Amino acid sequence: MENVLSPTAIEEYLCKLPRRARWRQWLSGRRYRVACFADRATPLVIIAHSFRDAAMARQVALVVEQDWAGVPPHCRASYDEILFKAPSLIVVQLRRKNVCGCLGHRHLFVREAPFSEPHDAFGGAQVGEMDIAYTRIETWLAQPLSDTALDAKFREGSRLEEFRAQQFRLRLLSVLLHETHHLVSPQEPEISVRERSIAFYREALASYVESAIATMSFTIDRSFSRFG
Ligand SMILES: [Zn+2]
User: Fold this and answer.
1) Could you give the angle at the alpha carbon of 23 between the alpha carbons of 18 and 27, nearest 5°?
2) What is the reported pLDDT for 217?
3) 216 within some domain
4) From edge to edge, which strands make up the β-sheet containing 104-107?
5) Torsion angle, CA of 155/176/45/105, rounded to 10 degrees?
6) Which of 127, 132, 174, 204 is the most exposed place for a label (fewest CB within 10 A)?
7) Domain contains 34
8) Cα separation, 68 vs 66, whole angstroms
9) In this structure, is residue 2 part of a structural domain?
10) Each residue of 46-82: pLDDT tens digit?
11) What's the average model confidence in pLDDT over 98-114?
12) How many CB atoms are closer than 10 A to CB 141?
């Protein structure tokens, strides 16, 4: 049988784990969700989470599958080489928060049990691991001044909730890319890794804001014309 790395292959692998391992996993509340980037076969992102965080794991999957495809091409291009060099399987341990208060970390070793040892189903693929702390990412002020200014703009247009949701998803995406960058170049200093992920976030958000504001003024104009 040919070993092609795909979300289905990984899901099948998880289903075929020895019964005891599956039960242990199920009882401890551990769940997995596999996501892939729309424009490339690898890396596959395996979101390891508690059953309590299933909704958030779904969001992270959407970030990989949809939001990545929606950012401007030059933003995607800035991570092209990093994603190309990245381990073909990336395990993301989804947490609410970290003791240290960080947004995320790359791990030196893969600790997530089903992926900590090589297996035929991985087709010889390299496995990397990171954690991300989503409640910390929700409250993170990536760019304090402009974020506050944008909040005000969207409050006026009563699209604040929608804006915040998109902003959060772009933050998740930039943290995921930031930690992938660390996995690919462990020696690169934090400052340059951070510079790239912040630029990605800033430009992706700017592009979203630009198109959202274009439709917002359209909506406002229409509601005014109703009174006219
Ligand atoms: Zn970092």
Assistant:
1) 155
2) 62
3) yes
4) 30-36, 44-50, 89-95, 127-133, 104-107
5) -130
6) 127
7) yes
8) 5
9) no
10) 999 999 999 999 999 999 999 999 999 999 999 999 9
11) 85
12) 9
Q: How far is the CA of 194 from the centre of ligand 1 (A)?
A: 6
pTM of the predicted model, to two decimals? 0.87
pLDDT(110) > 90: yes
Token pair 């900590």 is found at: 116
Q: Tell me whether residue 45 is in a domain.
A: yes
Find tokens 């660390």 and name the residue.
182
Rounded to a whole number of angstroms, the CA Rg of the chain reads 19
pLDDT digits (tens, 9 = 90+) for 146-169: 777 777 777 766 678 888 899 999
Q: What is the distance in A from the centroid of ligand 1 to the CA of 172?
A: 14
Ligand 1: distance of its center to the CA of 177 in Å?
10
Kindly state the tokens that stand for 47.
């979101």
Which residues line ion ligand 1, judged by CB < 5 Å?
190
The C-alpha angle 146, 37, 198, rounded to 5 degrees, equals: 25
For residue range 201-211, list pLDDT tens digits in order.
999 999 998 88
Task: State the pLDDT confidence band at 227, using cuts at 50, 70 and 90.
Answer: very low
Task: Kindly state the helix (H) or strand (E) to which residue 60 belongs, with its residue range.
Answer: helix 54-62
Residue 163 domain boundaries: 7-227
Alpha-carbon distances, residue 142 vs 75, 76, 139, 192, 198 (angstroms): 17, 19, 9, 16, 7
Token code pair at residue 202? 């800033």
Number of domains in the chain: 1
